[in-house]
Amino acid sequence: GNSVTQMEGPVTLSEEAFLTINCTYTATGYPSLFWYVQYPGEGLQLLLKATKADDKGSNKGFEATYRKETTSFHLEKGSVQVSDSAVYFCAGITGANSKLTFGKGITLSVRP
Amino acid sequence: NAGVMQNPRHLVRRRGQEARLRCSPMKGHSHVYWYRQLPEEGLKFMVYLQKENIIDESGMPKERFSAEFPKEGPSILRIQQVVRGDSAAYFCASSHRLGQGVGWTEAFFGQGTRLTVV
To answer: B103, CA 20 to 30 Å: which among A14, A46, A48, B45?
Structure first.
């Protein structure tokens, strides 16, 4: 079956540090891949997406590139802010009748 | 262009009562997902529905839980005879599917219903 694996957390960084959150996927076929963010007490918001190999999704300074050769979709940001503190979920979907599959999520805390 | 609407936002039920959670998808969306989230845990898939059809219910507990998405009206997640362990945040998401050539579309989430069983 399809699965998404995220690195273990939580992650604590100082403001302006570089962020990488790893995500790899296992799927039959070619998935579309997503990063979602959840702020405290809220629902999930789509952060960025990529629908085919070599696509780069970007939003709010975050980037992720769909790497078919390594089956990865790592999330990066060059300089994090305190307001980026949230839970980040990697997700993928592969077909018309397949569900949107999430990784376990990772909590990011950014210190001033 | 309203987003995914869930109600109620907070629901308190006594053990043994029924809980009904409602989800109105975004306009034009014909697919709905339900997920459960426990504190400090990730999202657990429950069920995936298309209008009048259950596509995947592999995450639904076999007893007390049911879901529907009728032709008209919101999707409903029903939990009968609730127990303390049902206390969680329940999230609904909706999407509409495009063909494989242009990629599968993302799902948009509601704000969730926080169920507390006392």
So the answer is: B45
